[in-house]
Structures are given as C-alpha cells and as structure tokens.
C-alpha cells in the first residue's frame, strides 16, 4: 500500500494539515474521522460516530480526546486543536507535530516537546461501534499525560448548544457513560462537566451551513509515561455498554491485521491497487438486512444507484464476491413494478430513479461473467425478466419503453430528477433530463444483452430479448449521434418553450459525459469513434476525471462552492466527477487510444484530500480542488475497476 506521511511543514500549517482528512470505519456505517492537524473542521468529525438503524442515521458521540503533557518542570503543554467562533485557534497542538502517517489505513501522530516524543494511534473494532486510542511515549520522560474527553450526542447533520439540556454523564467502572448512549474507559478518570462554547467548523461555514456548536467536556483521563514504550489508552464504545472491547492496543493490532488481510484478498497488482482495495473496504458495511454500501463519508448512507454503479469495483475487484452475491439477492427482493428500491438518507424507501435498476441488471451480469456463478443468474432470472416486462408496460414517473423505437423514455413529473444528475434547487431540478437520456438507453441496451446471455445460460429462449436489444440498438445508432461528432445527451426532450410533457420536442446536444457509457459498457450500443472521443476529452477531461458540462456552455459553473443552492446549482453543471474516469478510460481503450497517463492525476489525488481515497467531486476549473465527500464509493470503485482491467 501507499504509505502517506507528512512532516511539520504540512502538519503544523492549517492550510495543509487541516485540509487533509483521514477516515477509519467500523464496518457498520459508523466511523472516526478528522484531519492531519487534529483540527476538527466539520460537524461530522469525531472519534466515535455511531450508525443507527441505517448507515445514514448516524450520531456523533465522543468528539475529541485533547492531550496535555505535564513535564517534570510542572509546565503543561496542550496538544489539542480547536477553532472558536471568535476566529481564534486555541490550543495549537499541531505546531508540536513532527509527523503524521497513515499506515495500513490507520492514522498515527507524533508530537515533539523538546526531547519528549509522544505518539497517538487509533483504530475501530470491526463489527461494533468502538474506538481505541493509544498514546505511547517514544522518547524522553517521565511525563504525565492528561486526556480531556469532549463530546456530545446528536444527529450527525446538526449541532448541540449549551442552551439545551446538559448531557447526562453517569459514572461507570473506569470512566463514564454519556447520555446512556456510549461509554468511556481509561486510567484515572476525573469527572469535570463543563461546556466548551462556540466550537467552529470552517468547512461547514464554507458550505453555507451553521458552523458552530457547543461541546460538553465530561472529564479527564490521566496516566504517567515513565519510559519509552509506556502507554496511556482510552476506549469508547456504543451498543452493548456492558461488553467492554478488547484492550486498546489489541484493537489497533487487530485492525492492522484485518486491513492487511483485506488487501491480500484483493490480490493487488501494485501499491495503488492495494490502497484502493483498502479504501473500498470502508464503503462495504453490514446492516440488519445484510451487506450494503455507504455511498460516501461523512454524510451519505446507502443509495441503490451508487451501490450498483460501484458493484464491480467494490466487490468483484476486491475478492468479495460472496458478500456481493448476498447483496444482489437482498436488493432483488426490493424490486417493485420493475424498479429497484432507493433507500434514501431520510430513512424512507423510495422508488425514484430511472437508472439504478438498469445498473442492477449490469451488476448481476458482471457478477456471473466474472465469477462463473451461473446459479445466481438462474435464481434472479425471474426478477430480471420482470424488470424488462415492467419497462415494456410502463412504470412509475412515466418510465417506459417507447413502442416507436424501443428506447427508454422518462416522462417525469414536476420536482423530480430521475437520472444520476438529480440535483434540485428550491425543489426545482437543475437537470431534469426528461425524454430519452443517453446513458439510460446505453444501460438499457447493455442490460438486455446481458440478460439475454443469462437466459441462454439457464437453458431458456433468449430470442425476444435479443429482438428488443437489436431494435433499441439500431434506434440508438440513428438517434443519438450529433453533427458535432459527439452524442446527444437527451433525445425527445420537451422543447424549452413547452411545459413538462409538452407536444414539441428537441434533442439536447450539450457536451456532457453521460455519452461515455454508450462506448464503454460491455454491451455498448456503439463502437467508440476515436475522433469523437478526442472531442469529448478536449471539452470535458481534467486530471481528476470528466467535467459534467463543457466550459463553453453558457450554464457552465467553474466552482462547486458556496451555500446549498450554489453547490446544488453547480453539481452537474461543470463540476468534475471522478467516477466517470471509469467509462472514460474504458472507451479510450476500446477505441485503441493511449490510456497510460489518464489516471496520473487521480493517483496523485490519493494524498491530497481524503487520504488514501477519492473524493466525490472537484471544481470544474483549475486547480480542480476537491469538493463534496472526501471519501466516495463510486469514485474509488471505478478507479480501481479500470486499473484492474488493464
């Protein structure tokens, strides 16, 4: 694996250290997350963030363990870091950092105070909401180490203020229980109980959200570090509070061993593949319904479109086919009227995508093709045939096969955006893409071919599926190419002067990356045209992947910044989406174009934002600073998939 390390020039300067984030997960959707410098810049940062009934229903518990070193002289040096609503950063413990490393996916800090060096490592216990934090004296001593436990208990998307109820802290063996929700244990616990007022989160301010909250300092752990090798450790956990996790050092060692096993199971070709395989592990979680996928950290839960788009990279490229098989069965059980359920972050089950089900057809086909497990195809075949019948008959939101040409159309309703470009501003879709979107129909044609092969493998007659496929493929080849050389983004879209569903239609020829799927899927409807691909690359490709809209479009948004309306308005109007590098590189390969240097920027990005991972989005204009979730499932999955396909 790539080992990420930074010295005092990055750690001790907030522009570098506070913009690089680390993530450790518990396999359930919970996590510990923060920055290289130790400064919390998001409301989502904390050492114990606990998943609820769904991965999206997270609550923030233990926020920080602020270290303070008491030297033999009696001097007290604070090593924590907080920013306050006044703009002051105090304490400034990052100025004592001489090193930060991410090794085997686990963060490690080293502070130096003269000849005293103290190291911190942390890990989560896999399969339960528990974090272990180990402090070790590396050099110098003796010293006393105090650890102030500051926390809260709130929804991860909100904040808690001192004008509300005081957190309930009850004594427990070796520490305390906070709000009856999580427990802390460590050496020499001293209750304190005071509000830290006005803790500021600079990233929330930049996102136009409320940036401040108040934290409750529940108490302090203390221990003596007499000689190098001595440790002071703290455990924090939720769930069964009576069942204490193993000792903290064992939790860290077990996490390191497990991470190495995850990488070994993926059989990586090089250090980059190994790093991506471990990054992929963070998104695969187990819920009460079985395996699932967290779309992105820190704020997303499970979304069926993201799950199925990520499927091959997360499961088939990492040696997790057995988990993938279980997941595909579980998702198949959610099909209704030919549509895959989309479990929203609100906790409601919704059926509101035009493409997630088509990605599901693709995922099943890829699973059988890669693993040879034809029995899974046989088992799911009735459900998959039901998807095709439902689309032929017509299903929700006017999604149906147009009898005139065999292509998928979506009629849409006001306020809905059914493709992956689903951003809305004040309830109005920015890119409704009503009509026949190019990638939806590429997925439809791809899905019909894949299903026909599964049907034939099961000893059944695939002729009708091939007939549907051939008709749609022929219509696609006639309808989507533009005189400019690329493909229409949507055909048969309502003309701008007409209301949704009006009689007049036009074909949208804006240069967008959705057309890449028409050249890159296993059963793509078109053979890639090198000239067209080069034109697409000239308008869309950046070091972090394709833009969502060409810069010469009047609606191009160069920056994905500002408040929610500004960000949502720019989300698919020029913002870079790294996941699209998968279809881009695949199309280039099929066209016989060189691809060796297309992934260089994304590999370099692994150490820039979410360490060891790939961000959700980036600005459309240089320097293409990362935005959105620092850790995004389909970004990691597609980079890994397309690298493994070399």
TrEMBL record:
SUPFAM superfamilies: Six-hairpin glycosidases. GO terms for biological process: glycogen catabolic process. GO terms for molecular function: 4-alpha-glucanotransferase activity; amylo-alpha-1,6-glucosidase activity. Residues 279-641 form the Glycogen debranching enzyme C-terminal domain. Residues 20-226 form the Glycogen debranching enzyme bacterial and archaeal type N-terminal domain. It holds the Pfam family GDE_N. This is Glycogen debranching enzyme, putative. The lineage of its organism: Bacteria, Bacillati, Actinomycetota, Actinomycetes, Micromonosporales.
